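Give me the fold.
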Amino acid sequence: MDIAQNSIKANASLITIIIDANSKSDTLNIKIDDNGKGMSEAFLKNVCDPFSTTRTTRKVGLGIPMFKGTAKQCDGDLIITSKLGKGTCLTVDMKISHIDRPPLGAISETMHILVVSNPQLDFYIDFRCDDQSFCLDTVQLKQTLDPVPLDNSEVSTWIIESLKEATITVFGGKI
């Protein structure tokens, strides 16, 4: 949620979130890509430093440094690319079976909150695991439902139920 919030604060209009697990290679890949304002090369070099932040309310930003620490702790890494005016892409890889890998937690609820709390934005959410996949594309959803908004109570209920079912179907206890 924290990393996706960075994309929202960067004025992204499209945020892509891909969670891809491969049980054969024992890898979990999480990718968050946006078309926001991006980062300067100077800021990008220091973005993993907790004292390097764009926040004005406090002088630390822990989301990216903690995510990188978790990835490293789980035999993985975090890579960020960014271009000013184009957007930012953050990719994290880690071992699924690593004892220190945190669970995904309430991922369907998190994705639901992002979508219905930001109906003006577009999200492309893709869950993948081995031969199973699920995609929620709000661009297509908005076109299909027009003029009904994504934060409509019936639509919101459908979204959360679809995400919960997808989490069970796609990840099915593997991560």
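The longest helix spans residues 153-171.
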